[in-house]
Protein: Glycosyltransferase family 39 protein
Organism: Paludibaculum fermentans
Amino acid sequence: MTSKRASKSSASSPRSKAARSGSHSAWSGLAVWALLSMWSAVAVWYVQSQGWTLWYGDAEAHLNIARRILDSRAAGYEQIGTVWLPLPHVLMMPLVAVDSLWRSGLGGAIVSGFCFTLAGLFLFLAVRRIFDSTAAAVTAVAAFALNPNLMYLQATPMTEPLSLCCATGLLYFCARFHDSQSWVDALLAGLMACCGTLTRYEAWVLLPFVALYVLIAGGQRRWLSALIFCLAAGAGPVYWLLHNRILYTNPLEFYNGPWSAKAIYQRALDKGMDKYPGDHDWPKAWEYYRAAAELCVGRPLAWVGVAGLAAALIKRGWWAVLLLALTPAFYVLSLYSSGTPIFVPHLWPNSYYNTRYGLNLLPLACLGLAGLVALLPVKARGFAAVILIGVAVAPWVGYPRKETWICWRESQANSAGRRAWTQEAVEYLKPRYKRGTGIFMSFGDPTGILREAGIPIRESLHEGDGPMWQAAVARPDFFMWDEWVIAISGDRVSQAVNKLRRGPRRYECVRIFTAKDSPVIEIWRHIQ
């Protein structure tokens, strides 16, 4: 009898309940991750089957940068380059080393898809911990995962899924730190922040705010926890500054070097281009970012979710609101300071460019939606979750056409010319090129010709090969020994090969490819 009582007492003890609750939480998290994985796999398969995986020019570039680290005449660390942060390319490297995964683009898409599943899982776990509500967490992750713009991007080699993974992971470990005040959670938060700083520059802005939060919420060991967070998180920016200092002699090469966004914009202004919308104009900067956010997130979710942030604040989710609001605020500031342009079709210049930056509002809007659910009585939360998820997906269900997915639409519109001349160039070059004869070119959009034709990048001489390429550009008569040249009309490669129209070593332009709103592509061949 005593043993039965002891057994019952043990089963009903707080520790047993906590263990059962922890087990239940682990299983529910695993179930969410499994569902997200299946959903991601379907999207990756669908995008690949439609041929959309590499429509974004940046997707093509990220894939090829990852490949060139392993597959170049001067393969190795220096091929990481500058401007674009290295983590996405490093993660893609093992997969793009496989020719079939490189040529199809799946080597990058698989990485993005996996990061999407982790981002959704971290969001679910963070919201459940912040609001102590599974219904609220399900609402947030459903609105997140059913967004077609995100589902398209996570099926391509773009950096947004990895960036969102780092942001939601940082949110989750900060929420854990709030409850545990453990230096381990501070370290994990720092590692997520570090990964974010090596993925996209907007993550750099988060570091001082999170460090301050760790100090505020850290309890008796706040200074130790803050130090651990700062050392882990700060390793990313310190590494990147050192990388640029050692390789380019300028620690800010990514910011003010010749290939930085700042320098490219200045060259365009010097040629007479109009200023970007929002350049030193706060109302315009806000207008363009808000427009992009509404197009990416969907107007119902954008407005209902943002309105729901008041509920999140009532439920003491102020820190989560602040953390997730910092990235959209960064983009408004970047528009104002001319660091980032965003073009949307219904505002001047009525085109598409960087619309995907509006997707950074999605986690914040999902948090607001979850806050509305958490504010209600427990019995009403399930019904409210269904209603609010319906509100979030209404634009996509009400008009279920891909033309309403602004990120897909941008990739289609901006890649039409590039896809056309790439295909024509592949059809010409593939049957004529013999391995080992070599191609002199600039690394960029033309690299897609090599990928499509199945020609290894090491067959080409490009900027990443350093002194060899620079010598060929400066003195093509002495140092240009490749049989083929792929050039963008007027670029440095084109100017160099034009010097060899006459003389003892001659090249001839054998094909010119043109397409609407695209640069002219030239293919040259050594003839003497």
